[in-house]
């Protein structure tokens, strides 16, 4: 009998051991039989590493001396997975609600496709109602748009093709990092997942949402609030993505779409009376348009 594929489940922690410990408790209930759990601590300045180590001494904990961002943290987990010849890496945000059969459903779907690159579950909002946080992303000449945002799941999206899936819960097949390498850590936070999907698709690897498994996640939950730093990273990362994959987009349509997105972001900040959020978004646009380098700070 064939041994089940080896999966490394990777969680990033940054000064938030409470959520990480809660997610680890859920992972302990996983029905998947060949699982290694890794926590990458992204330069926490609190007692996260100590708390996680005391609660789960059997779990691999990679302690980074600095915050290397989402992509930089994930890359450490992928490198570990490659060192033990793992078949898959499952990225999980620490603030997810997950089910015991999540990993099995994702792996089964991937194993049925010899070109499977990336797989993700349906992402619901928290609560008992099956309402999407998002199904995935559509990528066309006018930019990037979420699919299914706040839509009740009546099955109509099952099997709908996607251009990208969220990194909040993403199964990465070994052939993916062997073909296209690691995530681009020039994206400090935001859009590194979409960039990875675009690169995977360009390498003829398939990307799909698996209909029979879900996670629950509040959009933006990992950053909690529309802080100045969060909005800066959101805007600068988005513009960086367009710069990197310029040939995929048509400039007139892209400009119209991004003008609408900017207006929505600034209106949202104004309605919340959150001037720092508006200031951060504008600063991020300026950085994305006129400067280069990692988006590590405002």
Q: Can you offer a commentary on this structure?
A:
This protein has helices at residues 17-27, 48-55, 69-83, 102-111, 174-180, 192-202, 228-244, 251-271, 275-290, and strands at residues 7-13, 35-42, 60-64, 88-92, 116-124, 132-134, 136-140, 143-147, 169-173, 206-216. By secondary structure, the chain is an alpha/beta fold. It has 2 domains: 7-216, Alpha-Beta Complex (Spore Coat Polysaccharide Biosynthesis Protein SpsA, Chain A); 228-290. β5 and β6 form a beta hairpin. The N and C termini lie far apart (54 Å).
Can you give keywords for this protein?
globular; two-stranded antiparallel ribbon; single chain; Spore Coat Polysaccharide Biosynthesis Protein SpsA, Chain A
Instruction: Let me know the largest β-sheet.
Output: 8 strands, mixed
Work out the radius of gyration: 19 Å
**Sheet/helix structural class:** alpha/beta
| Span between termini | 54 Å
Which shape, going by the Cα principal axes?
globular
Portion of residues within helices = 25-40%
CATH architecture of the largest domain: Alpha-Beta Complex
Report the average pLDDT across residues: 90
Order of helices and strands: EHEHEHEHEEEEEHHEHHH
Q: And the CATH topology of the largest domain? A: Spore Coat Polysaccharide Biosynthesis Protein SpsA, Chain A
């Amino acid at each position: 009998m064939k041994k089940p594929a080896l999966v490394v489940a990777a969680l990033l922690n940054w000064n938030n051991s409470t959520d990480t410990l809660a997610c680890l408790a859920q992972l302990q209930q996983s029905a998947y039989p060949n699982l290694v759990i890794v926590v990458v601590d992204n330069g926490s300045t609190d007692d996260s590493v100590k708390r996680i180590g005391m609660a789960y001494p059997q779990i691999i904990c990679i302690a980074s001396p600095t915050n290397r961002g989402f992509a930089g943290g994930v890359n450490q987990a992928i490198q570990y997975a490659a060192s033990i010849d793992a078949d898959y890496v499952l990225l999980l945000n620490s603030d997810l609600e997950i089910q015991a059969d999540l990993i099995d459903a994702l792996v089964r779907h991937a194993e049925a496709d010899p070109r499977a690159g990336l797989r993700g579950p349906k992402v619901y909002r928290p609560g008992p109602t099956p309402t999407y946080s998002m199904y995935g992303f559509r990528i066309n000449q006018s930019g990037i748009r979420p699919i299914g945002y706040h839509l009740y799941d009546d099955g109509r999206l099952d099997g709908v093709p996607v251009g990208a899936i969220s990194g909040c819960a993403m199964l990465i097949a070994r052939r993916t990092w062997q073909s296209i390498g690691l995530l681009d850590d020039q994206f400090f936070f935001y859009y590194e997942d979409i960039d990875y999907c675009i690169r995977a698709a360009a390498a003829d690897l398939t990307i799909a949402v698996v209909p029979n498994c879900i996670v629950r996640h509040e959009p933006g939950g990992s950053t909690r609030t529309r802080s100045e730093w969060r909005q800066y990273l959101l805007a600068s990362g988005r513009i960086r993505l367009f710069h990197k994959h310029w040939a995929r987009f048509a400039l007139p349509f892209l400009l119209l779409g991004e003008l609408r997105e900017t207006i929505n972001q600034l209106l949202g900040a104004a309605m919340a009376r959150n001037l720092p959020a508006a200031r951060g978004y504008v600063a991020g646009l300026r950085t994305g348009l006129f400067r280069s380098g990692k988006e590590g700070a405002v």
